[in-house]
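INPUT
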Amino acid sequence: MGTLNINPEIDDQFFNSINPLDPEEFRRQGHKIVNFLADYYQNIEQYPVCSQVNPGYLQKLVPNSAPNHPEPLEKILEDVKRDMIPGITHWQSPNFFAYFPSSGSTAGFLGEMLSVGFNVVGFNWISSPAATELESIVMDWFGKMLNLPHCYLFSGGGGGVLQGTTCEAMLCTIVTVRDQMLRKIGRENFCKLVVYGSDQTHFSLKKAAHIAGIDPENFRVIPTTKANEYTMCPKSLHLAVLNDIKEGNIPLFLCATLGTTSTTSVDPLRPLCEIAKTFGIWVHVDAAYAGSACICPEFQHFLDGVENANSFSLNAHKWFFSTLDCCCLWVKDPSALTKALSTNPECLRNKATELNQVIDYKDWQIALSRRFRALKLWLVLRSYGVTNLRNLIRSHVNMAKHFEGLIAMDTRFEIFVPRKFAMVCFRISPLVLCRVSTKFDHEEEVNKFNAKLVESINSSGKIYLTHGVVGGTYIIRFAIGASLTHYWHVDIAWKVIQDHANALLYQGSV
Amino acid sequence: MGTLNINPEIDDQFFNSINPLDPEEFRRQGHKIVNFLADYYQNIEQYPVCSQVNPGYLQKLVPNSAPNHPEPLEKILEDVKRDMIPGITHWQSPNFFAYFPSSGSTAGFLGEMLSVGFNVVGFNWISSPAATELESIVMDWFGKMLNLPHCYLFSGGGGGVLQGTTCEAMLCTIVTVRDQMLRKIGRENFCKLVVYGSDQTHFSLKKAAHIAGIDPENFRVIPTTKANEYTMCPKSLHLAVLNDIKEGNIPLFLCATLGTTSTTSVDPLRPLCEIAKTFGIWVHVDAAYAGSACICPEFQHFLDGVENANSFSLNAHKWFFSTLDCCCLWVKDPSALTKALSTNPECLRNKATELNQVIDYKDWQIALSRRFRALKLWLVLRSYGVTNLRNLIRSHVNMAKHFEGLIAMDTRFEIFVPRKFAMVCFRISPLVLCRVSTKFDHEEEVNKFNAKLVESINSSGKIYLTHGVVGGTYIIRFAIGASLTHYWHVDIAWKVIQDHANALLYQGSV
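OUTPUT
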């Protein structure tokens, strides 16, 4: 450090020339970015929805090391346009029907801007009381909108927390019940703990269980069937649990899903929870995608039985206009969670915590540091209001219904499972393909053809959709929910799908 | 769903009235927020740095449930001003000297805006190629700036990833080596795995090890001493490891710290890594705070020996102008990491992944979903340039040196440990207190007095600083690094500290 010489005057001169938070420079550049993004949304349909670049494209366009000297924002934004945008898959495009939506909104964006602007680190109450208190308040607001049982709300002895993703929410709850159980049975029995999901449960469960140290051999996958619409069969779960007990294992954790990834199936919560209760199994309900729909009374029956589960989560960044990341987790017994995840280091000691008057959200999650995520949820709720939010969800559901109707009119296609929310699963019907060639008597060839169709559609760049494989069948998923999607986009998408199907069926090398 | 009736016209009318991503409404409201935040930075010194509200203050100010109808942004921003700002602890204030800085910047903010605006979910390459490729590129850029050994860069067979926080980075690396070891020794020996840190290691290590299923009994805390400046003594580590082996335990993971939380001590990497190597222990270097300083050549000697560690992380959101959250993790062997954390579900299958041509960052972290965090680091690097970033870091270090000089001139205070970076640890000297009252012969009373001083200063709202306790001694931490801090803020802060010390020493009820 011998090279450092204190010279406040020189340092101040330098600092004034570069002040990284100079309010007027912030204002000037901030406006530029707002305009840049507004123009981006205006022009978003010009870009191929799914990026068409080749692996390694960017390395060829950028220097090998960071620049020594500052570059103006104008130049950087040119580079964003020229180098980044072609490499972006446009999740905000109205023609994005892939995966599940990543629903952006002006309100969500503004909330995130405020959060980034304040840039507080809300690990405990005192580090920024508003961050903690607003989070508890909006989690109760949201819980009420969903008609979650009172026991999940702070006002009912439970409570909610904002996490990044479902995987983190699952990990936190698994660790909670793992610790409870290990205290009872002793650590030497760790490798007997069993986690249950179905073959439709999101793979995050397996990853979370694995990270928590559960033996991968003890990850039970309950098979589902088409007859049961790919939901977890309570009887199969019961048998699996009994079998584990017979083998000396210890059933620990069950994940039930409200809206599975492949087909948006809904596991029957009530009977599953009843079985779990009998054996002291913690039930987490993963409603990552479809949970948001439950703000509409007509979907709330799917929550029937959730009062007997232990935790419930949904991703507001999927279908609730809240931009990534915003996973809402509610638990019935916060003290169990904090018992597993709390830390009390000297450097964070403070009166409010010691008097037990406050929530310290670091004890509700994996990490110490946390952003002021509640602001974006608060802005979404206030800017749109409950009535409009319900109607927005309904408009997506209606568009999916409309799309389903279009498919039903074209006998070359089949709906694979009944639509529940705003996602439609379909494929080119094997009956039609069989008429084209006898090779399509084999399911594998039918799958290949449908995969080829998806690939052909996506490389057009006009729309983007993705697939699933359930019970050996390749299905095409059409998920509506991008905030800019209108009916006419759905109609055009359907035309694109038909055109590519035509090309493959009648002109291509089937 | 019987209540749903498809009527595209009505739905479209409704949608047009509320379109949550209407570009012109986005533009109008976006500009408002930019102005709101620019004004906030302009006026930030008007607010008490540490929030002075009482627990539960917000509940009294807001309704019990979300509004049914939309509220205009103007009203919401009024509420932010009236209800939120008093509850915010102003981490961006130039008078914030608490914890470690949460260094915001215009460039970091703009990068985050772009990321939120695009709102892509970059779990794998195809989901948004630019998000993955830019991340790899800036991680190599940053690694080169730090002069990290080539083996940590993609160009040298290693590689970097952006995570949320250090705790997540630690958890990922612990799980990686845990799995490696369990494959060798069998899961029945899980409870023999041992993790090592010192009494100065961040408590995130203990939490991460706990989440990964390491027996809390097997968390070894190597004691440090003032004589060793609170660094981990290689000899003590060696003895602890030998002892564990003697007892039949299996040494697994060591966390060495570059810049501890309490005193910014730097563990001696070279000898620690040598011991670890002998016993096959994974070494993670936690440089959360001080790592950023290593972009300056005069600090790079602290990295000496890091080539023998396995992973290295720093928080760009702490002292690298990148806003929360942005933890940079480099590993020498990415394949070990992905072996532990990869998942390959059908719904994400794609050609690029199958041809092994690309990075899928979901396999480098806990969660599936991930934001486009690389944009903010890229904007910071390009907007300021390496030379200015070094000088910004140096200006903070110089200010800390200046503050140290001020303390040295006032014999009532003592510097507790030599300053290394931009944080100064000090306290009212026990020698001075002893002259005031004989009760100060007891260390505990000296501690209490210093704690009282901190409390008195913080309740003034003029500046905010926090404390640490090392080896039984309560110390006051003065951490410089808020982006708006100038020399004159340091001078004023010193005056505030002196005034409160005077009041307590000479007018108060000592």
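end of record. The domain at 41-104+387-510 of chain A is CATH 3.90.1150.170 (Aspartate Aminotransferase, domain 1).
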